Queue: 3 jobs
Job 1
Amino acid sequence: MDKPYVIGIDVGGTNTVVGLVDKRGQILRQGSLVTSKHAEVEDYLDELAAVIEDLIKNVATKDQIKGIGAGTPNGNYFTGSIEFAPNLRWKGVIPFAQMLEDRVGIPVALTNDANAAAIGEMTYGAARGMKDFIVITLGTGVGSGIVVNGQLVYGSDGFAGELGHVIVRRENGRMCGCGRTGCLEAYTSATGVARTAREYLELRKDVDTQLRNIPIDEITSKDVFDAAVAGDEIAKEIFNYTGDMLGEAFADFVAFSSPEAIILFGGLTKAGELIMNPIKESMERNLLAIYKGKVNLIFSELKESDAAVLGASALGWEVK
Amino acid sequence: MDKPYVIGIDVGGTNTVVGLVDKRGQILRQGSLVTSKHAEVEDYLDELAAVIEDLIKNVATKDQIKGIGAGTPNGNYFTGSIEFAPNLRWKGVIPFAQMLEDRVGIPVALTNDANAAAIGEMTYGAARGMKDFIVITLGTGVGSGIVVNGQLVYGSDGFAGELGHVIVRRENGRMCGCGRTGCLEAYTSATGVARTAREYLELRKDVDTQLRNIPIDEITSKDVFDAAVAGDEIAKEIFNYTGDMLGEAFADFVAFSSPEAIILFGGLTKAGELIMNPIKESMERNLLAIYKGKVNLIFSELKESDAAVLGASALGWEVK
């Protein structure tokens, strides 16, 4: 029987959002629960299963659901486990897919958030019809989902595509949350942008900027964005600095898989041209000659609020 | 009919080597011609066709040849063309595969040398049974062939896998032949090692090393190797410096495709442990925690003299 629906789950450290999705990528029904309130993963999964059952009810029957896809922190596609996720309360290796499948009786696949985003772009978004592209997520951290020959790159262990952790500054690099220094994420995540702002304010006490109206330890990337939109020169410089570094890193990524496009996703993309223009300019300047002018840099076409659920749901079509 | 043979062609700037290969990767017959003597590619291809015909004669009939695979400078698998190869006399875009096929009546596929090496390792060498690995060629230049999900990564344009041209030094980087600065190739190719030797001799006039017995502009990576084997401390330091940089770059490659193995191939691998030990040490030190201890670093198992022809021939099995 043809199964017309999938379920997508976006597991965040704070909240979990669940959606019932059809073949055209429409979210027909949506539900949510608070991830962080459950100290035990068993309790969390009981509530999640109840939310899923409730979502299906009235719209469909269980045997009309092709599969469930989940995007989770540190999700391993090969094992179906969440492995040592620093932002979740459940420690060690959690056989998440199997445990959820046992509860709801529908096959479950999972992967990490950035890979889910890449599958979402390929299925419903900007990458429809593309066989080689990279999705870069610019949020609290920097993540990536890489597609080669029309297939997601999971690598030998399921953990391929950690492009937020390539080293962009080998000397005097910023400390990164991963314990190393100089990672792309330490500079170009939302928190990296806020850090850059604090550095600029410290180093350039002479210049005037509206960012000085905010207590220095409370500056966020949103403040930098607001200031840049208002014409603040320092704020624009911060975006140029961030875009420059992303462009340098992207030029190296292109030398790896020569993608047709690099798709930007996540909170920082709200900055629009302020971030896109410097990335484009820097990437083109840094590309090896044979790649120049070939790589499209585009923003995700998925609506931010739906994207995580849609991306995860797309994995549901592939479940066997 | 089952076709038991393929032909492999290794097109070098100076010489071209051709081999008739069976399913077990045995080179049954071998021939060669001088690439550089032909100003016109048509004349070259006429001679190459004659060498191929001669190779087949007495061993097999033409319809027993499954296909011809060629590894060429700047070879594009998608188009079958050699495109703007700086080391060949024929300029622009040469539809090499079609032109050769027209002459010999056997289907021809081509790719660049490093991709041919990767296919060779997968078919006959150290990567048999692996689905995710990277071959790094350390010769006059630094090249790479990347395999993901059991397939060679060609990218959207056929030119993926130029890992010799990722940037390892963003500030004060060495000039690279590609026109940019700081590329991996500028440091870790055979010529890069010789350059490092010259820098060490200039910068450290105080220390004694047998490399001073050679005119400074004539030092080669072979001289550095010979000195290191003889126990010369500066020569060993040069290999440590080179291996360090390769290890740093490899850690970034792993964050991309999480390969089961990285396979080293080419002239510089003759240095054995002198180069392997510092690479391993540096790669492990630089890897993101989730990848530590997972990636095998190994030397190619293909005999150096046969490897290029074998690698190219393996492409012959895939010709359609």
Note: The two ends of chain A are 14 Å apart (CA to CA).
Job 2
Amino acid sequence: MTKQEIFEQVKKKQSYLCIGLDTDVSKIPSHLRNASDPVFEFNRQIIEATKEFAVAYKPNLAFYESRGPEGLRSLERTMSIIPKDIFTIADAKRGDIGNTSAMYAETFFNHYRFDAVTVAPYMGKDSVMPFLNTKGKWVILLALTSNEGSSDFQNLVITNKSGESKSLYEEVLGVSKKWGTDENMMFVVGATHPGTLTSIRKIIPDHFLLVPGVGAQGGNLEEVSRDGLNSSCGLLVNSSRNIIYAGSDLDFAEKARQEAIKMRDEMKVLLDKYCL
Amino acid sequence: MTKQEIFEQVKKKQSYLCIGLDTDVSKIPSHLRNASDPVFEFNRQIIEATKEFAVAYKPNLAFYESRGPEGLRSLERTMSIIPKDIFTIADAKRGDIGNTSAMYAETFFNHYRFDAVTVAPYMGKDSVMPFLNTKGKWVILLALTSNEGSSDFQNLVITNKSGESKSLYEEVLGVSKKWGTDENMMFVVGATHPGTLTSIRKIIPDHFLLVPGVGAQGGNLEEVSRDGLNSSCGLLVNSSRNIIYAGSDLDFAEKARQEAIKMRDEMKVLLDKYCL
């Protein structure tokens, strides 16, 4: 999928909502537990109820892998019913030496047919490049994550090969943006670091950012949108648990729909104000 | 498995060899292709031929995941036949926010029953801690990897919160060693950085290190052993392709066995010289 196609979705839906399909079999409504594949049945109803308002779905691989091969079957089934014009992200945070990263690219782009995969930067350029070799597919590189531990290393002050001092995450952004383009790379920037988006936009004005951490983790949608939206939108704001577990009864999908509509309504206003 | 149990294996086998099961279905001997599960059949024969000389097996997850759920079935079957006294490492390089890392711990420790999993440090403490909560299980944290891209970020000079200057990988070692103990944490240190092991041993004298990069990638076993062996051995030196693809014909397992014996013979001498 191209950047322009993502932006067309945003304009059509007036939304830059990414829904995280972190589907935990122990948390889905009890009436689904007798389905032949409860996780898939849950996802199917969530997707059906929210697809008008979401521009991306992001299954988190851990939730599928923890059930072994059967869990991956649920993922295959889920991928098969996501409408083709909605962007799909494998939240997998992979990254390994070249021949191994090439295998992961095969996994997510060819086997499961995701549009994008999240990748960790620690192993450097040759661990990321194999993901950039498939036309129309995207790397979403971790830059500044939303969790508390992001301060352990990502915020360290480094001195780079040109003698410049900056945060490690700023160096990751500045170096890695040259590995691809804004047509095949995005970056993860958590919403839990107020004030950082303005300086991040100076380094990567045109790239899309995948933003976790709005809502339960404390990030503010208005602030993120004000500082992060660009002329092609440039943001995919993720919500997982707030939406998919909005209800826990027979009407769970309708509850999820209501949460998605609430996010879309806020996003519509913010797009008018800061982007379109 | 405890550190002492690993050391007992080392002493019994006179070896600190870890064999990487990076089994690529396109590279296995053609006579296996008609087996009901060719990857498992390949692994079964490799394990049978090398288990006397290996103290650890390390399946690389990418090679199994790339075939979808079926690939993970091959992994389940492989795990079921590795002798229980041999240490097993899921080379998965995971790491995510807390509830997600907990799911990955469930995946590798409970579902597939690995003893250890490799984890990337970029997301910090709360992304690693969930892996340290299972008694007898291990995190093997990436510190200084063997690939060319390791110099992109791991070698950057950082200034930490105490005002000390050091390489990022040294900071990762110094900070993360406090998250666990030498009974539940190991570190990945590539063999392709001559001279670094001596300074790394000053930071973590007692931890086991998982060392990739000997052989094809240019690392030298004698040098790694001289600088890295400690009084409990403290090294697991990995070899993947050199061993498992030593032959490509009917006698592939025998060829793998010969390569493993060659490594064991070298290691026996080095253990005498630098450890036992």
Note: Chain B has one domain: 3-274.
Job 3
Amino acid sequence: MVGITANPGSGNSKAPQPSSLVGVMGSIGLSGKVNGMVYTAFSDTLAQQVAEKILGGSASVQDVSDVVAELTNMITGNLKSQLCDMGFNCSLSIPSVVRGDDIQVSAKTASISVKNEYTLEGCPDTLVVQVFAALEH
Amino acid sequence: MVGITANPGSGNSKAPQPSSLVGVMGSIGLSGKVNGMVYTAFSDTLAQQVAEKILGGSASVQDVSDVVAELTNMITGNLKSQLCDMGFNCSLSIPSVVRGDDIQVSAKTASISVKNEYTLEGCPDTLVVQVFAALEH
């Protein structure tokens, strides 16, 4: 991922709802043979570190939001590609960025709720990815 | 809307980003000839009032989230229908619900940022709807 190695955790394929997330969150909707919503959550420190690493210098609040949006787009694009290979074609909405403390996200109509944490090289905080999805019948 | 009259405000067709929202927020992605993200924001009081009105009695935290998700689905479905009539066919992701204090949402790739407030009959707080969108070229 943009020159940063991300190591996945063991994941939780039955992540409880609502899911608690903190910091700078990216979100993108999926629609098609799979409908869903992907949330990525970077702690403020992690978002700042990653943005500075990518931009090669200081990063403003806007820069950090842009980097989080772009990384969320890349992560969800990768997921879309894998879903497509499995026969679940879908298209993506635009990425939006949500900032706040102690954010709770849920999606009751999602039969699938998967959460995983990724450790990024050289960063102490983890990146959390929460996917809510429902397969088309 | 489910027996509750909603009166729109004058709206802001160039709503600044990031947009500040509070309380219980619904969100849904749009993808197709228009790509975007719709956020609805109910204050805690408004969400509770509307849920109790719809359910005809007391409403738990989960009930309130369900009602906000369903209303967001209805509002976005209505928008989708209008966009479709204008030639911008699109499909919707599933609704998700975000709770938190002082939430900031933004979508840099959205050339369209529209915000409006709706007054619901018998409720002092307003419902805020923020739409981020980009038209397909």
Note: The mean pLDDT of chain B is 93.
